[in-house]
Write a structure and sequence with these properties.
Blueprint: E1 2-3, H1 26-31, E2 48-52, H2 55-63, H3 65-71, H4 76-85, H5 94-102, E3 117-125, H6 130-136, E4 139-142, H7 145-152, H8 168-179, E5 188-195, E6 214-218, H9 226-247, E7 271-272, E8 277-279, H10 282-288, H11 298-321, E9 330-338, E10 342-352, E11 355-363, E12 383-391, E13 396-397, E14 402-404, H12 407-414, H13 422-436, E15 445-452, E16 456-464, E17 469-471, E18 475-485, E19 488-491, E20 495-498, H14 506-527, E21 551-552, E22 557-559, H15 562-568, H16 578-601, E23 614-622, E24 626-637, E25 640-646
Parallel strand pairs: 1-18, 2-3, 4-5, 6-9, 8-9, 14-15, 20-23, 22-23
Antiparallel strand pairs: 3-18, 5-12, 7-8, 9-10, 10-11, 12-13, 15-16, 16-17, 18-19, 21-22, 23-24, 24-25
Helix pairs in contact: 2-4, 9-11, 10-11, 14-16, 15-16
Length: 652
């Protein structure tokens, strides 16, 4: 945990103090004459407290008008993210934006007076990528019926879904260009849309429903069959449109991306219209487009292409070839692969909810004859999908390193809901990444965007360490102190402690008793004392006040009466005037005893670059009259305090 100031003893001191006359006891008569005088309220509405921001506090802070004005248009998204993600950043720092919250009625201690100190614990996100902040500030948009009409270019012949004919990578950027003319470089947009793996067919008469049927198709029968070659070419064309065009390819024969310069074979899934088979040689795929398989072995590439071919490419081609589909239809497709040797397989697919769905794949020794299916108007079945788009200053595109979790995927994870809670995301997103990126190499980074319950779309960064995906949220719990001066709260890593005057003041009792203990152990014991209540030396027989410095845990002050000090331990002040006795007691308090007590209670308080870290002590004294003094020590090393000044040394 990052600490600006120490994890030390901080007790919330009570406020209003009115000290009554002292009790009639022997100790009072001997040592505290005159303490019946009234004392000033040095601690009225003044407290030193600890506070940890709640989730609601971040929301309140981000919504304050003073903070919105401070952030301006330039940082308004970053400020909104503080309320949304419950953390500060370097851009929206607690030092600048916390004071407005501490002064607002949303803070439980907003009425504290000058001299108070609040040690606030909050979440701080350090060194996060700018991309993550931008993703968390992204807007969201769901395609409308009018958008689908625009995509399909018709008021009548359209489907409320995108499909292979109008793939999201091509259709949505065109819509966003018109919808977001104000977009600037670095903007992101989360887009929700319906997607169908099957293209609709328009202007075809309705065909009476039929019973499901099994269709057998040999996709490897004759490499000279033009219809068969067209089947395989449809896959190559699809890969070009959906994979290579977004990479910048403008010609299917450019050789840029997965499709070769021949334009009739591709190495995204291995489809070859020339050989009418799936060429699954990893070496060829890497040679064609190494960037697509960075960090993968030839065997891994071959396996990935095989999966893509079975589960994506073949279903796409079947959907292009067969449009008369009813749920329950079964396809048995025979095809060949080449990995250095030729193998034959039969893949089985079933139509579910209008979508051709992969069922199984087995090796085959013989091919079955194909069957034809009549064409009709397709009733498009679709699933709710989500993608994130990035604006590079001129066009929108889907970034390779950003993954969007769709409603359907949320339902799959939760079993019911189309959003995730933060806890569900914590538990399931690493698993999702491991399943979907089985060949990721160490240090691979992905951004995952999901719809969080009651929050909206949230982006997280995950990094793969070679075995597991771990979130990089950059968040550490940080503690920073704020002090109230001249009616304003200011960030100050220094510590301000007010020790209330009077009996039974817990904070004062702890500090002054620590002084008594130190004097006993370090001064009186070497003199021969065997008990802190022996009365031998500087500590009195009550054990709760001493005259080495004058600290009194009983009265909650520093007793600077020279005659009482001499009476307690004459040998310690032999031959000294009253003024010399008091000066010596003060010096011991400043340079010897209190620094040791501060080190005990504040061992982690350390210097900070660019700031003079100090500990300020406001305390009471008695020399026949009651006074309030302020002393300061500089933190020169962790738990080490160097005396700076005290008001009791100022000239009268």
């Amino acid at each position: 945990m990052k600490q600006y100031i120490s994890k030390t003893l901080f007790v919330a001191a009570a406020a209003v103090l009115a000290l009554t006359a002292c009790d009639d006891n022997s100790w009072n008569k001997d040592y505290l004459d005159g303490f019946e005088d009234a004392m000033p309220d040095i601690n009225k509405d003044v407290q030193t407290v600890e506070y940890t921001l709640t989730d609601d506090d971040y929301t309140t802070l981000a919504g304050l008008s003073a903070n919105k004005a401070l952030a301006g248009d330039e940082l308004k998204d970053e400020l909104a993210n503080v309320g949304k993600l419950k953390r500060f950043t370097d851009a929206i720092s607690a030092e600048k934006y916390m004071p407005a919250f501490l002064s607002s009625s949303g803070f439980p201690y907003f009425a504290l007076n000058d001299g108070s100190a609040v040690k606030v614990t909050f979440n701080q996100a350090d060194a996060l990528p700018e991309e993550l902040e931008k993703l968390n500030a992204a807007g969201s948009y769901t395609l409308s019926a009018d958008d689908y009409k625009t995509v399909w270019g018709s008021e009548e012949d359209y489907a409320e879904a995108l499909s292979p004919a109008h793939a999201p990578k091509q259709a949505i950027p065109a819509l966003l260009k018109a919808l977001k003319p104000e977009a600037v470089l670095g903007d992101y947009m989360v887009v929700n849309y319906n997607y169908s793996a099957t293209d609709p067919v328009f202007d075809t008469p309705d065909i009476p429903a039929r019973d499901p049927q099994t269709i057998e198709f040999d996709a490897s029968a004759d490499r000279n069959d033009e219809e068969l070659k067209a089947f395989w070419q449809s896959i190559v064309d699809w890969v070009f449109e959906t994979q290579d065009v977004p990479l910048g390819a403008t010609d299917i024969k450019s050789g840029m991306g997965y499709v070769t310069s021949y334009g009739n074979n591709e190495y995204w899934s291995g489809a070859s219209a020339y050989q009418v088979n799936a060429d699954l040689r990893g070496s060829k795929a890497i040679a064609q487009y190494a960037a697509g398989y960075e960090g993968m072995t030839e065997e891994q590439v071959s396996e990935l292409m095989f999966t893509r071919f079975k589960e994506q490419s073949l279903p796409y081609a079947l959907g292009k070839k067969y449009t008369d589909l009813v749920d329950g239809d079964v396809f048995k497709v025979t095809y060949k692969t080449y990995t250095g040797v030729t193998a034959s397989y039969i893949a089985t697919y079933e139509v579910k909810d209008g979508v051709i769905t992969f069922v199984s794949n087995v090796s085959a020794d013989a091919a079955a004859a194909p069957a034809k299916a009549p064409a009709r108007v397709a009733e498009v079945a679709s699933v709710k999908s989500t993608d994130v788009f990035y604006f590079d200053g001129s066009k929108w595109s889907i970034p390779d390193n950003v993954i969007a979790i769709s409603d359907a995927q949320c339902i799959e994870i939760t079993g019911r809901y189309n959003t995730l809670t933060a806890a569900q995301a914590d538990a399931n997103l690493p698993i999702f990444l491991k399943v979907n990126y089985p060949y990721a190499t160490a240090d691979t980074q992905k951004y995952v965007v999901y719809n969080e319950y009651k929050t909206g779309y949230v982006a997280r960064q995950y990094i793969y360490d070679g075995s597991e995906w771990a979130e990089n949220d950059g968040i550490e719990q940080t503690t920073l102190q704020f002090v109230r001066k001249d009616g304003q709260w200011l960030a100050d890593p220094s510590v301000v402690i007010t020790l209330p005057i009077g009996k039974n003041q817990e904070l004062s009792m702890q500090y002054y008793q620590a002084c008594c203990d130190w004097v006993y152990e370090n001064i009186d014991v070497p003199l021969g004392s065997t008990s802190i209540t022996s009365g031998f030396g500087y500590v009195t027989s009550f054990g709760n006040n001493e005259y080495y410095t004058g600290a009194s845990a009983y009265q909650g002050n520093v007793d600077l009466r020279a005659d009482k000090a001499v009476a307690q331990y004459p040998d310690g002040y032999a031959g000294m005037s009253d003024a010399e006795v008091v000066a010596l007691m003060k010096k011991r308090f400043e340079e010897e005893v209190m620094p040791a007590v501060l080190a005990k209670f504040h061992p982690d308080l350390a210097p900070m670059d660019g700031v003079q870290v100090t500990l300020t002590l406001v305390f009471g004294t008695y020399d026949g009259s009651n006074r309030t003094e302020t002393a300061r020590w500089e933190v020169v090393a962790p738990g080490e305090f160097k005396f700076l000044d005290c008001t009791w040394n100022k000239a009268e």
